[in-house]
Structures are given as C-alpha cells and as structure tokens.
Amino acid sequence: MTELNDGKPRKIKNARAYSFTLEEDTSNFGIHEKGGIATQVKEPKLLNFKTLREAIKDPGDFLLSDFSKFDRPPLLHLAFQALDKFVSEMCRFPVAGSEEDAQKLVSIASLINENSGDGRVEDINPKLLRHFAFGARAVLNPMAAMFGGIVGQEVVKACSGKFHPLFQFFYFDSLESLPTANLDPSEFLPLNSRYDAQISVFGSKLQKKLEDANLFVVGSGALGCEFLKNLAMMGVSCGEQGKLTITDDDVIEKSNLSRQFLFRDWNIGQAKSTVAASAAALINPRLKIEALQNRVNPETENVFDDTFWENLTVVVNALDNVNARLYVDQRCLYFQKPLLESGTLGAKCNTQMVIPHLTENYGASRDPPEKQAPMCTVHSFPHNINHCLTWALSEFEGLVEKTPAEVNAYLSNPAEYTNAMKKAGDAQSRETLESVLECLEKEKCETFQDCIMWARLKFEDDFANRVMQLIYSFPEDASTSTGAPFWSAPKRFPHPLQFSTTDPSHLRFVMAASVLRAETFGIPVPDWVRNPKMLAEAVDKVVVPDFQPREGVRIETDEKSTNLSNASVDDSAIIHELIRKLERCRENLPAGFRMKSIQFEKDDDTNYHMDLIAGLANMRARNYSIPEVDKLKAKFIAGRIIPAIATSTALATGLVCLELYKVLDGGHKLEGYRNTFANLALPLFSMAEPVPPKVIKHQGMSWTVWDRWTIENNPTLRELLQWFTDKGLNAYSISFGSCLLYNCMFPQHRERMDRKVVDLAREVTDVEFPAYRRHFDVVAACDDDEGNDVDIPTVSIYFR
Fold first, then answer.
1. Residues 328, 7: Cα–Cα separation, whole Å
2. Are 459 and 505 in contact (CB under 8 A)?
3. Has 159 been annotated as catalytic?
C-alpha cells in the first residue's frame, strides 16, 4: 500500500492500540502486506470569535465549571451587564451592605432582561443579585489568583498557538463560600485596614477567624509559595492568636525559579521554607509565621507531636508525592483536622477537601498504579522513545553508579562481600560478580585512550552486536508458536548501526561515555576530547573485533517476566570460580584502589550525564527506527521531571483558599464544599461535591473513619474488655503495632487481665513512650453476639 507514503495527513476512525481505519476509499490502493509506521498529526483548528459587542448580545454556549449551577452563567452574564450600567450611571460600584444599591442593581438587571428578547432569563434571582451587589466593589485574593491562572494560560495560548483557547465567555462564582449565617449590615463596614475589601464580602467576624487561625502548610515549593502569598494577603494567621507553621526539608534549586516566585537567584542553596517565610512576611508584616526544615513523617513525631496537631485549625498540603500526602491525611484523620489538598501536573490541577465527619479522607480513594513497560519490551523490543530512555537510564546507573559501588564494596571488605554472594547463590549475584570482575580485569582503564576504547566497544556491543544477535535469534520472517509473524505491531524490526567518525552523534556518544568512564577510574580528562577531529583520530585507533552470532542465546519475550537474569543450575559453582578470579585480580590492584560511583544529576549541563543518556537512547532509537529526541526532551523524560507551570498552580491555590473561607466559617454542610479538577489546556473545569465517608452502624451506634474511641484513666486489660462489652462488642484480639496484647485463644493471656494495658504494651514491644506522648492506640478485632465481625474505629488509651 505504497500510496500511503506520500506524507499527507489522513483522517482515521476506530483507533485502537495497534490498529485504525482510514476515512477514505482505499479500493484502488495496493495491498497492505505488513508493517508500516504511522505518526499522529495534530492539525490546526480555526476558531471564529465574535466581537465583544456581538458576544454580549448573543453569548452562545457558556463554558460550565459546576454542573449543579447549570442555569448560573446566563444570570451572571446579565448581572455583569447590570453592573456596567450601574457604574456608568452612578460613577461608582454598589456599596457593600447597601440594600438601596442592591435594589437598584436588581432593577437595572430586570430592565436589561426584559429587552433581551430570546436571550431573556426566566428568573433573575434577586437574592443572588443582592450578593453580587454587595461584593461588586471588592477584589478578593483567591478570586484574583484563580482568574489570574486562567487568564495567564490564555495569554500563553494566544502567544504560542498551543492548546485550545477559552471560547468567548466563562463565568465562575463561589457564592457557597459566603458565611452561612445572615450578617448584620454593620459587619460589612470598612475598618480602615488592608482587609476592608474582604470584610465587605465576608464580614468582620470571619476576618477575625482568618486572623486567629492556626494553620499548618506542608511544603514550600510551587504550591507552597502560592499559598503563602495568598494567605498573607488574606490576613490568615495575622492576629494575636494566629500562627502559621510551614515546613519543607528541601533547598532551592535553579529550576525552581520559573514557578516558585518567592525565591530569587541569590537564594539558591538556601532552605525553601525559611526563604518563603521571609518573603511572605514582607508581603504582610503582621503574619505570625514559623519556618521549619523537617519532613512530616513518623520520624518527626517528636517535633509534630500530639499537642502540635491538637492546636491546629486547618492543614494545607502543598506536597509533591503521594506517600507524604497519605501520612498527613492519616494525621488529620486521627486528630480530626480539616485538610485542604491540591496538586498540579502541567496544565492540569485538582483540589480535594477533607472535612472531619463530612467527607471521605484523601486515602479513601487511590489512583490506579502507573503502567510500567514490560522488561522484555524495554530491553529487546522498544517501540517508543520512552522505552529507549528507560533502558538508557538503567544502563547509565549500571555502568557509572552501581558497578563502581559494587567494586568498592568488594574492595572495602572482600571476605564479607564474597560470603554474602556465596550465601545468595543466585543468578543476580552471579551477574553482579561478573560485572565487578569485568570492570577490574577485562575492561579496566588506566589511560584515557583505554576509556575511548571502552566507549567505542560499548557502542559496538550495544548498537551492532546485540542487534545482530537479536536478528539471528528472530529473523525478519520469524513466526510465533501460533504461526503469526513475530515482528508484528507493536514490535519494530531492528537494524544494526555502522559506527562512523563522520557522524556527530556517534562521536558525542563516545565523548560522553569515555569522559564518565575516566571519572569512575580517576583518570584525568584531556582538553582535546572536545575537539571532534582529535577525538575521531583517537577512536580510529581502536581495533573492533568481528562479531559472530551465537547459538542458543535466550532472549526473553514474555511480557509478564520480571527478571531478565539467565538462571543456571551451576550458579553456585560459577560464583565460587568468579570469587577465585576476583581474589587474583585484587592482588594486582594498587594499594587503596577505589572507583568513583557517579549518581545521576540531571540539572548540571556540564557533567555529561544527560549527554550519555541521550546518546544511549537515541542510538537505540535509531536501531528501531524510532524518532530521536534532543537532550532537553531526554532530560524531561529520563529525569522524571513533573511538568509544573505557574498558571495551574495559581488556579489550584485560589480554589483552595475559597474553600478555606468555608472551613473557618464552620457552618457549611457537605453540599457547600467543592472538589475540583481543571485542565487549562482544553480548557475544562469540573467541580463537584466531596464524597461523604462510609457509615458503619451497630446497635444504635454509628461511626465513620473520622471517629476515634477514647478510654481515659489508664485502664487494665479487664476494664478495656468490659468497656467493649458495654458497647455490645466482644473483643477477641487486641494488638499494639505488630505485637499482640491479648487473644482469647491463648490461655496464658488471661493472666494479663489485671495489668495496665500500657504496661503490657511496654513489655511486649520493649518500647518506652516518650514524655510528650499521653496516649497510645490499639487495634481491636471485635464481633457481635452472632459472631459477625464489626469494624470499629481506632481506640486510644490515655495513660497520663
């Protein structure tokens, strides 16, 4: 079907993982025999925008953010027209709390609506317009942050032509953020403070709650910087009773500066939390802030102890990993503290509200695990550049990090190292010893020319010999056990590379590989290595032996296989022989010989790390006719860089701060809160009520994951069991951590009945409780009178 080779884009349908249907008549085309590579093409889309004058009269379809407010955008469209008319007539905005101004706005809106013809709104909702009038004068930080993120992304779209622009109108409101109680008009009066705009919307009582809040912000990166800016401008923790604690154990790197705007060039290398706290204090000198450099995890519970958590009002997560989020979630669950969760990924962002007794906790739902490419695909059958880069990173770590580290481990304590290998006696130990012996004997480098020879032979082995062996084992016409062609999609038939000193990419690979090899052996790198002509002359001196394919080489093709090591029945014998050779080799090494283990560092452009990884990946991609990538793209993938941009960060933090108003007001029900997912690239905004927690019921009692049962006065085991009995529960097993305190099946446990539970916990676990700990938690397995297991909350026993 050679007619498809003209390079023209074609529309397709029925797209599947490895097949699609062309949307055109192919009856006159030749026959498709096999193979072929298709590349997805994103074609430009032409959008026709109305002028502002036309769009106001005929707005068309609105972009929705909250499907529970389906009728809200047309009403807000009318409200803003009425506001413009009010301002043009009165030369001012409506006064907050002024019923007269609110009524005038309603009258103007009603008049505009009557003259709107087919665009007329059925119900102008005077109550909503009243709220609209009260807040029209104010500029609120969370709304400014949120819309700033949206508009900022639209500016980038207009400049770059990348992503789909927001089409015409987008209206957003968060009326549910307003206090639930009716406020007296005096609540909205200005106090001659920097928060007067906020007071004119939410009232002075909520402002006082903001100022006296005790907040804990976990993380001081992109999200953390935005949060600190927002909180400082809102006046959070700026009162006499308020305090904001921020913690982050990371330091500032150059790559942070593009989106973590509280940091400057001269802050590189300094603690993130300290610098961010100082910057936030400059924004609002009244901010009561304490910066810590501790991770929030079980090891720092002496810092973030019970008293610390109990005194908090709200916890705000600004983290970048799931494990830390889950730990903070468990702490908030335990101490029943609201948790405001958010995250970003490129142009996407999400927010989740975790409110005690109202919503499920963060850990109640998990994203599916990220799919990993099968090992056989990465090592022998790659079909995209990600596979090549995964393999390249693995090769890099093996060559310059793991093998030198193994060499040093052996040389530091030969007896202990070899005994461990003998004890393991498996294929992995055998392969590790082979790589150590190879590094110290066959491939040992003493001069830089040796490093060049190693690099040149490495190229030949990886990109020529291995491919020829693969083709020998699986020829182009090979078939599977079912008779299907072996080299069918997604597999790509490879081609060995012919090294050439005239190919700059080949020379760049040799240069990066030889420089890093020299670094591991402590060999000085000559300046001439950067001269292509002189490097080419040095490479030409290398004698490359001819390759002969071998029979019986096993190449893993099972996608479910997780181990590529070739096991042998003689592994143990081979390991003993390798150890004998290593001992002889060690005797010939200079005294104190050690190698340098190099850890991957993506952000240093002068260390040749990304040059080697990009070289390995691109040469492998060339083997399999996969499009190559530049060093920047390779760094993005191999460095596992999570794309982060300021626009989605601003949007996420603005939305979270709108929820903070609700949390501190304290009167909102579940339907008043919002979880959000947004994608600024599409654009898409999806807001929904949080999911309530699962309720468990038993004999007139009910509880959720938020509940914690407490028993005071340092009970004995007998008193604890009776306490359960009084609740209609039979506790047949009680444990503390991984240790069993009581089980009804063990007769000797009955002797513990009159002992204090805390003493049992100390004895069984051999752990002494620190002075700051007033209680400990036990897990009890219970059933009811009919023998049915009952899931109960965590039980906390107070002994001090």
1. 53
2. no
3. no
